[in-house]
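Take one protein record:
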Amino acid sequence: MMNREEIVAHLRVALSAVLNKEVGELSPESRLFEDLALDSTSVIELLMSLEDTIGLEIDPDELGPEVFQTVGSLTDYIEHGFAKAAV
């Protein structure tokens, strides 16, 4: 199972690819839309990238807007997804 640091590292790589620019250090408070300039299309690309790179299974029904508020909330969602998959 991945720890939070590893999840954030994967997020940074995926965000850099989706946004076509180098994404620096991410803090849990970094806001995905306001600070990192994600939009609804890039969110979908980000999720598909994470599905491919870390094998995350995403349930679209669980994806409320609160998941995408900050890097921390998205990391929580991913961590929760892995914990659920491990059961």
Q: What stands out?
A: The radius of gyration is 12 Å. The mean pLDDT is 90.
